[in-house]
Amino acid sequence: MLEVQDLNKSFGTLQALKGLSLRVQPGEIFGFVGSNGAGKTTAMRIMLGVLSTDSGRVSWNGKEVDDDVRRKIGYMPEERGLYPKMQVGRQLEYFARLHGLGKAEATRATEQWTDRLGVAGRRNDNVQKLSLGNQQRVQLAAALVHDPIILVLDEPFSGLDPVAVDVMSQVLKDKAKSGVPVIFSSHQLDLVERLCDRVGIVSRGSIVAEGTIHELRNAGKPQIALAVSAGPDRVHAALASAGVKPQPDPLEGTSDAPSADGLTRVIVDAEEIDDQALLRAALSAGPVHEFAPRRPHLADLFKDVVVAAQPEEPTQKGRRGIFGRRKDTAR
Ligand SMILES: Nc1ncnc2c1ncn2[C@@H]1O[C@H](COP(=O)(O)OP(=O)(O)OP(=O)(O)O)[C@@H](O)[C@H]1O
């Protein structure tokens, strides 16, 4: 298990990390999300040992991570780290050899990963001739070429086209399936929601919410999705008379909440009113086609929890966010 305990890191007067802790189990994909400047890159760089921590520790299977373990980590840095004027194939072989692979093994791994990531035809090109997306595929190959025991990837999906996103997602799933703990940061929350076993939301240097997608969604505010066969004015008036303030359904027009002529879709905070009273109010506007509990998606949770943690010096309440005390991450 990869364990990060109580990291603190300051740059001058700025405290970038404030007691950040997380655990990633073998075979698990952990999504590391947070606003710009929250501290994700700083924490990942400390995990890799390319940045020192002021206090706290990073351990692998109970032992502090040393140079030997670090050599076996696959890392994709945010600032990317390829040599622009070096050929893709030679560069990957070079990285593989740096991590201790023999020549034949390095060549074999380079061929395997460039094939898998769809850049085999570019092996003899200098990196700078590749599109940014293809450079990113090569960067992922560089993180994988030495068959790492841990994967730490800083925004691996940013700027990728949908095909490349699928290829990269499948690679991460396969690596996790083979028992590797995978941690990656991303601002693409729909992707994180689809791909990750667990997610940690970082705000101002600490994890403010953490759990499986299911746990996080269930801990969010319950809502009711309503679809009523009546015009919006009529539906809003009927609900207002029952003391409810409906919101537009953010999923309207998707396969979860298809639009139809004459159908009004709204979301109601389930804590505002009991189900029976809500149903009566909706029926007074027209036939009710849908009346279903709705759990918030990661993007909604993210906004709630990050806003809840916004005060300059977070209070205990703010630090806990909307999910209550952070759960122990042990399984
Ligand atoms: N070398 C550095 N010197 C000074 N400040 C730094 C340094 N590295 C990071 N910081 C600051 O530490 C804070 C955390 O930055 P970090 O890059 O870890 O955030 P992040 O969560 O990765 O953000 P993003 O999503 O924008 O990549 C920011 O305020 C950043 O400006």
Automatic annotation (TrEMBL):
Residues 2-229 form the ABC transporter domain. Keywords: Antibiotic resistance, ATP-binding, Nucleotide-binding, Transport. One of its GO terms (cellular component) is plasma membrane. One of its GO terms (molecular function) is ATP binding. It comes from the Bacteria. Belongs to the ABC transporter superfamily. This is ABC transporter ATP-binding protein. The lineage of its organism: Bacteria, Bacillati, Actinomycetota, Actinomycetes, Actinomycetales.
